[in-house]
Amino acid sequence: MMTWINCRIQVEDFSLAAEYQTLVRQDCGAVVLFSGLVRDQFRPDSVSSNSIDPNNIDQLQALELEHYPGMTERSISTIAEQAARRFDLRAVSIIHRVGVLPVGEQIVLVGIAAPHRRDAFAACEMLMDYLKNEVPLWKKAHFRQSAEWVEAKAADKNALQRWEQPK
Amino acid sequence: MVQTLVTQVLFFASLREAMKIGSLKLTLTKPVTVQNLLMMIAGQSDRFAAALAERELLVAINEQLADQHSMVQPGDTIALFPPVTGG
Asked: Are B80 and B58 spatial neighbours (Cβ–Cβ below 8 Å)?
């Protein structure tokens, strides 16, 4: 069964309603949409676990997303094809924004249409795990008083393991 | 006469900022390993050497992920970058 695949890197925002319409299929009983957002947060070392020091607090203003034009798009298409081989899917849409994205903005969309919900949920989770580990994209966190590159997390790396074992 | 082809090396994210350049060109006369290529770049300046030494690096050859032992052919496009953090 052919799977329709749509992958985009773009600066502009996207509309969940419009993307949903591109996914809906007569033979699909499930559409799963995931959107990742820039979350309001403090620079981790500017807050302690039990108190907030107003003199030291450094609040996030925006995330800046950098990519490798060409390889990023190709790498996203590759993981979409992997998901389509592994699960029974009819449509996959992945949109990742780049540039400076202030708190509250949408960063990423993963949309799946499948005959049944289990495949749609699982494919969506697998694609987010691969997006975080295998696609050339980097986040720089711009706080009020400083800026730093986001470090890759071991938890994201470990999340890949569940997809690497045979199903 | 030996044919020489220019090999372009691209840098991204924190590595690009530490190198203070987005790319450089090398002239290779024969295939070398990624490891050799890194040594050639590090040999060009102390800043390059420090930037390459102080972080975990991933490498892509012609937009495909590779490793330290992969061979770089004259004319290939190499990308060096820190672990990815998208999504």
From this structure: yes
How many Cβ atoms from other residues are within 10 Å of residue B84's Cβ? 24
Question: Cβ contacts of residue A36 below 8 Å, gap of 6+?
Answer: A106, A107, A108, A109, A128, B87
**List of domains in chain B:** 14-81 (3.10.20.30)
Answer CATH for A4-44+57-162 from 3.90.1150.210, 3.40.1280.10, 3.90.1170.40, 3.40.630.10: 3.90.1170.40
Q: Which residues of chain B neighbour A152 with C-beta distances below 8 Å?
A: 82-85
Domain locations along chain A: 4-44+57-162
Q: Which residues of B touch A80 (CB under 8 A)?
A: none
- Residues in chain A with CB shorter than 8 Å from the CB of B12 are 66, 68, 136, 138
Contact A146, A46 (CB under 8 A): no
ipTM (interface pTM): 0.93
The whole-chain average pLDDT of chain A stands at 94
Q: Which residue of A has its CA nearest to B83?
A: A152
pTM of the predicted structure, to 2 decimals = 0.92
pLDDT value of residue A49: 64
- Give the chain A residue nearest B14 (alpha carbons): A149
Mean pLDDT score, B4-8: 86
Q: Span B28-56, mean pLDDT?
A: 96
* Contact call for A137 and B10, based on CB within 8 A: no
